[in-house]
Amino acid sequence: MSTHTFHAHRPALTTAPAGTPAAPAPLPAAGPRTAPPTPGTGAGGAGGSAGRDAYAHLSLTRTVPKEFVHRASVAEVLLTDWQRTGTDRFTVSAQWPRSHSFFTPIAGRHDPLIAAETIRQAGLLLAHTEYGVPLDHSFVMHDLTLAVDPAHLHVGAAPAALTIDVTCSDITRRRGRAASLRYTSTLRRDGHILARADASCTCTPPAVYQRLRGHHTHTTPLPLTAPTAPQTVGRTSPTDVVLTPTPHPHTWQLRTDTRHPVLFDHPVDHIPGMVLLEAARQATTAHLGHPTLPLTLTTTFTNYAELDTPCHLQTHTTTPTTPGHHTTHITCHQNNHPVFHSTITTTTP
Predict the structure, then answer these.
(1) pLDDT band at 25, cuts 50/70/90?
(2) Long-range pairs of 324-331 with CB within 8 A, sequence gap ≥ 24
(3) DSSP secondary-structure letter at 150?
(4) Are 327 and 317 a contacting pair, CB within 8 Å?
(5) From CA 155, how far away is CA 137, in angstroms rounded?
(6) Is the pLDDT confidence value at 308 over 70?
(7) DSSP characters for 86-117?
(8) pTM
(9) Closest CA relative to residue 2, chosen from 311, 314, 303, 310
(10) 209 - beta bridge partners?
(11) CA distances from 21 to 8, 13, 54, 125 (A)
């Protein structure tokens, strides 16, 4: 169960995009809107979603407001624009830097997990801007499936410009806003399909989230444990390692450094889903004993990963069906309860 919680301070936007004469609208208030947006009223259309007037043209000129994707740092916002293209259908634009402080290139290719972060941000953006979810709501991601084509992951001479076609389904609404939804995405680069993804989430009001989490919103994280050797998990810096070795074979303890500027971009009361995905990837690399490039990833989140209790990951592999590919299964438990399960298929970069 991967939860995204973000308490936003929402300053008004004060600078209009180039060529836009009108002053932009401020970010929407945290309260619910009176009705969901009208289908077909995307960028610049009458009745469009709050905050949309400031982004009248789908472009790569500026990022979307960081509050819409639950990021404190503008530098960690990957999305640049969005528009509605039909009933529950949208196009989102994104840009990947040639070099990222955490999602570092792998043998000249963009890290596939930056695609997972892009999908995470796209779901949050559309929930807030197109389905009326207030900014103070918490998001619980229940599952994520991602498949990438390494032929289009190459790091080029400029940042990678992406177009993401998103279709939302299984939408439940309460008080005129989305309470849960599933979204299926196709990521394109230069007209080529780079990745496909599918995810589902629920959106929880603050009072309900507080009742669900109770005292866990005030827990103290465990002391930071020693990292596994970075080279064994595909990392170069120990600060980016999220695993600690254990005496047991193919078993690691989750290492949570709440000071990490990317994985813990803002204060949280649980271990974020992207940390769990990175742990699964690092455990896969350590299990196989050589560098890996993820090709497919399927993850189901079943419980919150708490900060104050050890989490342990275990791995095993199955017989590969494609030459050069390896499928690793990763399970994580905390207090004898499952936290998540991932299946990752990799190749050697």
Answers:
(1) very low
(2) 324/348, 325/295, 326/288, 326/292, 328/283, 328/284, 328/287, 328/288, 330/279, 330/280, 330/283, 330/284
(3) G
(4) yes
(5) 36
(6) yes
(7) ETTEEEEEEEE-SS-SSS--BTTB--THHHHH
(8) 0.85
(9) 303
(10) none
(11) 28, 14, 10, 25
